[in-house]
Design goal:
Blueprint: H1 28-43, E1 50-52, H2 57-71, H3 83-86, H4 93-101, H5 107-123, E2 133-135, E3 142-144, H6 145-158, H7 174-178, H8 182-188, H9 200-215, H10 218-221, H11 229-237, E4 242-244, H12 245-256, E5 265-266, E6 269-270, E7 274-276, E8 284-286, H13 289-304, E9 308-310, H14 321-329, E10 333-335, E11 344-346, H15 350-374, H16 383-402, E12 411-413
Parallel strand pairs: 4-9, 11-12
Antiparallel strand pairs: 1-10, 2-3, 5-6, 7-8
Length: 419
Amino acid sequence: MNVLTERPAPGWHTPVPAGHPAAGLLTARAVRSRCSIVMAQVESGRSPFFTWHAECLPLCAEYVAHTIRLNYPDLNVPYHARWRHFEAGGVDRWGALLARAGLAGDPIEAARVAVDLVIPSVLLDAGAGPDWHYRDADSGQRLSRSEGLGVASLALFAGGALSADAARPLRCDASALINLAPQTLADAFQVGPSNPLVGLDGRLALLQRLGAVMAATPAVFGTPGRAGGLVDYLRAHAMGGRVAASFILETLLRALGPVWPGRLTLKGVSLGDCWGHPGPEDGLLPFHKLTQWLTYSLLEPLEAAGLSITGLDELTGLPEYRNGGLLLDFKLIQPRDQRFWTHPWTVDAPSIVEWRALTVIGLDRLADAVRDELGVSAEAFPLARVLEGGTWSAGRRIAAQRRPGGGPPLHIVSDGTVF
């Protein structure tokens, strides 16, 4: 098992020693255990917000299994990762970029470039809103939502906007992020009065903070700070070429925690995607959705670099509006107050925090039921494949069947950094 040292080496923006009170919250284990507390309260009827309906699980599992068979008839499902969005419309944009760069014969540098791309791309992946789209010049495709954001971020990266070295455009350098201009991001995402993108300012600020944190964390990103330096850090900490998924996540949570704006902190350490809820004894409920999404998205480039990733199912499902919307649409989660469906909710609202907790545990239960439907084992079909095949696709599919435009069943006010 890979473990973080008791005292992080010099070169961390915000060191988090193992004994620090925040350390236990910066783990997938904390997400699952604390969300379980909330689920237990709901199942015992002690929640003012929701009820849980296990009798609806079989129908939902059947729908997800059918969706998986539609998407992947051979059940050869890839990981739930940003890479699927780069392939929107059946175009292998990443493969073409690698070929143009001549990196096919250098798997380590190809992995660094992949990480250079995927870290900022994932941070840009909060909901785009219903009115935004992206026109892919190469394919002519009109893309929206996550696919549009993914392809737009790939174009931003491929154009060298995130590199500090004009001779090496396929990099994500700290200094380039810090100095990224608002108009550069707006132009890359084709934003204008008739094509508004939710949270554009928040996305820009997130990338600029990412640059500042990378520059101040040479232990992970090297000097003067490159996102792809993470590959070298993980290779150096691998044991026999093996690295635990939980170690990758905890590294990212500690290294990137200071990136997140206006979040809860504990004795000087940012807790990231962690919110108040009365369920856990200390009132803190972590989700780490985008950072887990990033961890899932790192699996393929790290494996291509020769690393073996262990313990995938230590990570949790992602509590966002597709997965959580699926559970609402199939009535596994039911609100006690019908105004839940129409009220505009902020991400820190107690009902939204609780809905996300139920989504985490609901996805674990749904994954088991889906595997039973498909006749596959957890080892052969980890949660990362159930999500991709899968619950995320099924959430989008049921939303399109039930609502014009395919939006989620609830209204969340997004700042571009969570949903």
